[in-house]
């Protein structure tokens, strides 16, 4: 029977029961039974873990974005609370599009398809498809008939988006990587804006090295990249540089990279074999690839070798921008520079101008002459985890004025633009306000005992930087995080010298790293402490 108008309207106003509980979804929960850093929906995280978070990596969790109405789990941090707390809200989210799904009534689409059970009839076919070391669920050919499946009138977004495979004229840009084992698989596509670095093992035979495609430079540059997906505009991959590696590991950069060096057999060796490829892709802010370059490492393979290790890397840079080097991901790596910057007026976060072109915290660099005036402008980066000390000597005469001398020494110690903030993590971004630690600057004055304060001035003689850091995150893989930085300027009182007299004053800079991590405490008290003395032969015959 036909529905009455009132019944139809009532059914339309009533939203269907949600199929997925978004409060239990968590796409950033990667570690099993462990708290993931900045994952506010991780059920393994406690209130103590949330108090250490700097941001929520996934602030909103929803189900199917095509539904007309659905629940949304919203996560945020209350940084003003002491300690900071996580805030969870379950809200109703309405899809503004007029083309949306009111109810998911196709039940077969809500479940995974049952796998095909091997039988004597289909065993050979399944073995051919899944019996290898690697297999792909993608279609057999990536060169799809785009005209048939995507007519010209289709509303396509002709640009690359994050994570989309970089397409070439025949398939996609290959970035070989280990999948199931350590052996190389060429079925791994390079994803747009995803910087990757892989290493894998390739089976080789010196007698057939000139016929193994993966050892040839042409295998990695012979296919042009599509400037945007499903277009006819091509971007050729140019050879940026070629480095030749000998059998003992010595590398030599070739002056010319115009000539292709193909693998060949010479004196029982396979020479010009590809050992490493480094792709560098330049793109526009609209997602169009405009340039592609590849840097190769070629080497020799001895006839005794049955396999060779290859390394592959790809990086993306937007045009007219300079890439910002990272010092860890996420925590700092020992030996990499401490990233720093300062907040220009009008900016809500540390951005724009940095302490130098690399955005690093620096100190005075010692020179062979030990002359402070000659060392002005020479800076050395502060490397995480390395305690450092440097200095110079200043020759003071009676003709020197106090104020210019003090300002010159301050510039020698702090540099032209001393930063105001230090990145707490090695990969902190400028827009993440809570990931930047302000530098506390202190001034200490020490007086020369043998001199009076009459006709004297204060000059800075040392800069001491103390960096306090802690182990952050999982105990299995803790990450180094900077929590406090203090820069202390020490000044001394200098009396006016008599005419013709000179004095030499040492000026020093130092950096000290202090680990303030609390020792891990067990979550149980199952083992009591027993204060007894064991016999001397209790563990005999073991030591």
Question: How are the SSEs placed, and which strands pair?
Answer:
Elements lengths: L4 H9 L33 H4 L9 E3 L6 E10 L6 E10 L28 H8 L15 H4 L27 E2 L5 E2 L10 E8 L14 H4 L3 E2 L7 E2 L1 E9 L5 E3 L10 E3 L2 E15 L5 E13 L5 E12 L21 E2 L20 E3 L14 E3 L6 E10 L4 H13 L6 E3 L12 E11 L9 E17 L6 E17 L6 E14 L28
Family: Belongs to the tectonic family.
Protein name: TECT1 protein
InterPro entries: TCTN1-3 (IPR040354), TCTN1-3_dom (IPR011677), TCTN1-3_N (IPR057724)
Short description:
By secondary structure, the chain is mainly β. The chain folds into three domains: 22-94, no CATH class; 159-318, no CATH class; 336-447 and 455-515, no CATH class.
Mean pLDDT reading:
81
Q: What is the straight-line distance between the termini?
A: 89 Å
| Rg estimate, integer Å | 32 Å
Given the structure, what is the number of helices? Answer: 6
- Strand composition percent: 25-35%
| Biggest sheet descriptor | 7 strands, mixed
What is the N-to-C order of secondary-structure elements (H for helix, E for strand)?
HHEEEHHEEEHEEEEEEEEEEEEHEEEEE
Which stretches of 5+ consecutive residues score pLDDT under 50?
Answer: 138-155, 349-356, 448-454
Binned, the helix content reads under 10%
Could you list some keywords that capture this structure?
8% helix; 7-stranded mixed β-sheet; mainly beta; single chain; 543 residues
């Amino acid at each position: 029977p036909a529905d009455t108008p009132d019944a139809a309207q009532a059914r339309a106003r009533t939203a269907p029961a949600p199929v997925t509980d978004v409060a239990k979804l968590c796409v950033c929960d990667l570690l099993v039974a462990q708290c993931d850093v900045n994952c506010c929906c991780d059920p393994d995280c406690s209130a103590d873990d949330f108090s250490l978070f700097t941001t929520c990596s996934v602030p909103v969790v929803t189900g199917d974005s095509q539904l007309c109405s659905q629940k949304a789990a919203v996560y945020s941090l209350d940084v003003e609370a002491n300690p900071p707390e996580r805030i969870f809200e379950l809200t109703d989210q309405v899809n503004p599009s007029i083309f949306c799904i009111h109810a998911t009534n196709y039940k077969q689409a809500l479940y995974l398809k049952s796998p095909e059970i091997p039988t004597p009839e289909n065993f050979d076919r399944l073995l051919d498809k899944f019996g290898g070391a690697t297999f792909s669920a993608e279609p057999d050919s990536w060169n799809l008939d785009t005209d048939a499946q995507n007519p010209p009138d289709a509303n396509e977004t002709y640009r690359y988006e994050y994570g989309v495979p970089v397409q070439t004229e025949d398939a996609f840009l290959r970035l070989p990587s280990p999948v199931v084992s350590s052996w190389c698989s060429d079925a791994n596509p390079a994803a747009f804006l995803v910087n990757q670095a892989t290493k894998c093992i390739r089976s080789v035979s010196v007698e057939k090295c000139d016929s193994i495609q993966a050892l040839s430079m042409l295998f990695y540059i012979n296919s042009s990249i599509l400037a945007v997906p499903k277009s006819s505009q091509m971007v050729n991959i140019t050879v940026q540089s070629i480095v030749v590696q000998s059998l003992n590991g010595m590398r030599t950069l070739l002056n010319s990279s115009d000539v292709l060096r193909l693998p060949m057999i010479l004196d029982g060796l396979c020479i010009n074999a590809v050992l490493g490829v480094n792709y560098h892709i330049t793109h526009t802010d609209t997602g169009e690839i405009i340039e592609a370059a590849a840097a190769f490492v070629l080497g020799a393979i001895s006839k005794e070798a049955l396999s060779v290790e290859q390394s592959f890397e790809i990086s993306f840079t937007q045009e007219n921008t300079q890439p910002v080097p990272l010092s860890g991901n996420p925590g700092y790596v020992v030996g990499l520079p401490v990233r720093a910057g300062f907040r220009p007026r009008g900016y809500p976060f540390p951005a724009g101008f940095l302490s130098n072109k690399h955005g690093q915290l620096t100190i005075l660099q010692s020179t062979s002459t030990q002359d402070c005036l000659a060392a002005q402008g020479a800076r050395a980066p502060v490397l995480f985890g390395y305690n450092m000390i440097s200095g110079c000597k200043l020759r003071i005469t009676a003709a020197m004025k106090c104020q210019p001398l003090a300002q010159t020494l301050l510039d020698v110690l702090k540099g032209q633009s001393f930063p105001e903030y230090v990145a707490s993590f090695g990969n902190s971004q400028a827009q993440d306000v809570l990931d930047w630690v302000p530098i506390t600057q202190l001034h200490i004055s020490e007086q020369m005992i043998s001199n009076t304060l009459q006709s004297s001035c204060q000059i800075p003689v040392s800069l001491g930087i103390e960096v306090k850091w802690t182990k952050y995150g999982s105990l299995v893989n803790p990450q180094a995080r900077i929590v406090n930085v203090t820069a202390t300027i020490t000044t001394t009182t200098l009396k006016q010298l008599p005419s013709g007299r000179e004095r030499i004053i040492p000026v020093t800079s130092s950096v000290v790293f202090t680990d303030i991590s609390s020792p891990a405490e067990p979550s149980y008290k199952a083992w009591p402490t027993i204060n007894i003395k064991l016999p001397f032969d209790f563990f005999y015959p073991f030591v």
